[in-house]
Amino acid sequence: MQTTAKKLSHALIAFTLFGALTVGAVYVTYGTSNVDYGISLLQLGNADCDDDDHVAEEFQEQIVEVAFSPTAAKNIGLDDSAIETVKVTDFYKSFSFSAVVVERPGFSTITVPSPVSGVITKIYRETGVAVEPGEPLFDILLNQQESVRAQTEFLTLLKKRDINAAELERAGLDPLFVPRQRRELEYEKIQIDSEIDIQENMLLLQGLSETDIVESLKKDGKIIRTITVYAPPFENEDNVASTAHEGEEEHIFTIDELLVSVGKNIAVGDALCLLTDYCKLAIKGKVFAVNERMLVDALTLKSRVTATFGGNGNRETVEDLTLRSIDNKIDPASGTLFCYVDLRNRFTDYAVTGENHPRRYIKWHFKPGQRCELHVEVEPLPNCIVLPVGAVAKDFQEMYVFEWVGNEEERKIWRKTPVHVIHQTKDVVVIDNDGSLFPGAQVAVRGANFILAAIDAVNQKDTGGGAVSGCGVDHEH
Question: What's this model's pTM, rounded to 2 decimal places?
Fold first, then answer.
């Protein structure tokens, strides 16, 4: 009887500290920073007030279910978005390592050279503006005598061809025209056409475009004094892995740096500006050399790679990436090597200014220098349950999740369920599908540690206290 009395005393002290005892359920109110955490703890078993020994046994039983008031649930984030249905799936173990987004040498930065010698007379766009392939960038006034002379000779040949064509037409209409003269005119036409082709190729080599030659020289018969330099076309690369379907994103350049100014005299091949093409970037991962074998296997098997960006609640995951290459040299100081993963980028417009000549400014989603973490799949774990780390609470060597088993008025009832965790990362836990947690069950995916702490507080494991039942009342199991 003394033992029973001590347990009763301990239990009453515990409930005095944590809340008020009521008939049918134990309601505990926690005060933290002036916030009301209303919690209803549901006991297992029945109580008999006339049987001290039965009461003593009742104190040894542990509370496994808890119901939070709506206010308490909001304070710990247990709303409807915190409930997830358990599903059985396949999971792959992976090894992770730090990485950084980098430019692709030879592709991400493009130098626009001058095709001719001359003087810059107009600059169409300033630094930071987005341009599409084919948009004008610069106007250049030609001052190269060879180009002017070549255009003059080309116009002369065009006139000779017109005269020759007229003579051939007259020869076809005049029956007295000597056949030998007609043959000479036909041979002259072949010569003129050949010289025109040669001269046209020379003009192309001197920096004139086919459009300039057709529109100005052939059509209008005027010498070209100013040429326009346009943004180059994009290179098509079939070997670049994509994180999205082709056609979903638009290709665009950004003027990274202007290297000339209006009035500057430039020569053939001088750099006019630098364009950045961040539509496709790369992720450079740093791996210890001891893991090279796993990297080679992943590259051979085309294993899936996942990149995780950001932190502090702003995490972003890019899936279905693949390794592109692995370096063939190891840094002797750190014992590491680098591997590379292709990354398709996207952008959003943040400003369009100017009415007559609109200027477009964009913001790339991924940027060179951005830190991330790569996860390379190495081992499958079939038929398991995968939940966020916030769904599992640890109590010494036991691991628990909390199932939503019903409602008590406006309070959701959460039941503590022990599980076997077979693998864990920073983001997810992998649970053995051994029957302790059934597919289709609804569990809390965050706040598990708080729920467990609430149950443990009433159970008073550390102080030897137990749960108290109302006399003569059947409690829920």
Answer: 0.64
